[in-house]
Specification:
Thiol Ester Dehydrase, Chain A, long-chain fatty acyl-CoA hydrolase activity, HOTDOG_ACOT, hydrolase, binds coenzyme A, HotDog_dom_sf, 8 strands, Thioestr_dom
């Protein structure tokens, strides 16, 4: 009986939503192998496949931070810097830069590794905006960001400027 009580307390504290979180608490890295079905006949991986994975890893960060459902509302222009080929391993690294009320800016860096040579190249970078939604499908507030490092503070300020520009360009 005592064991059950302790377990219940542990579960409820793990499930509680903090009012403030650091970027490192929601950081995510996803590693995906590229297969022929992800590419054109010459073996170049489709840009859309890379975008899908960018959206997927950014969604993990947004849901970790908000501990709620979160949907993509904006994906800034993405530049594909180097090709990704069938057989490459895609490393997607994502962190949260900025939050407002319900919105969150997530930065994603995608690198491709040639397994044979071990060489990794930066393939794409992207900024994705997610909005946290409550059970009724309406935006809900997310935890504020606890900025612990100089990098956190710089990325927060840069994210804020980008978000202001985004909202100026937003078309309803
Ligand atoms: C997310 C959604 C419910 C928000 O509805 P809305 O009427 O735009 O709500 P609001 O105007 O109150 O905006 C809510 C937040 O989203 C932000 N937002 C909305 N559109 C945005 C955009 N294009 N870029 C950046 N932020 C945006 C607002 O700034 C606001 O942020 P804040 O709460 O931090 O201040 C609605 O836009 C939606 O359902 N979009 C479709 C999402 C989707 O299906 N995505 C693809 C599949 S996951």
């Amino acid at each position: 009986m005592n064991v059950q009580v302790c377990w219940y307390k542990k579960m409820s504290s793990e499930n509680s939503i903090k009012s403030e979180k650091t970027p490192s608490e929601s950081h995510a890295e996803v590693i995906v192998r590229m297969f022929p079905s992800d590419a054109n006949p010459a073996g170049n991986v489709f840009g859309g496949e890379i975008l899908k994975n960018i959206d997927m890893v950014a969604g993990i960060v947004a849901q970790r931070h908000s501990q709620s459902n979160a949907v993509t509302v904006s994906l800034d222009s993405v530049n594909f810097l180097k090709p990704v080929f069938v057989g490459n391993v895609l490393f997607l690294n994502a962190r949260i830069n900025y939050v407002h009320n319900s919105s969150m800016e997530i930065e994603v860096k995608a690198e491709a590794e040639d397994i044979v040579t071990g060489i990794r190249t930066i393939t794409a970078t992207a900024f994705v905006t997610f909005v946290a939604l409550g059970k009724n499908g309406k935006p809900i507030p997310v935890p504020t960001l606890a900025l612990k490092t100089d990098e956190d503070r710089i990325k927060f300020d840069e994210g804020k400027s980008r978000m202001e520009r985004r909202l100026q360009n937003r078309q309803k």
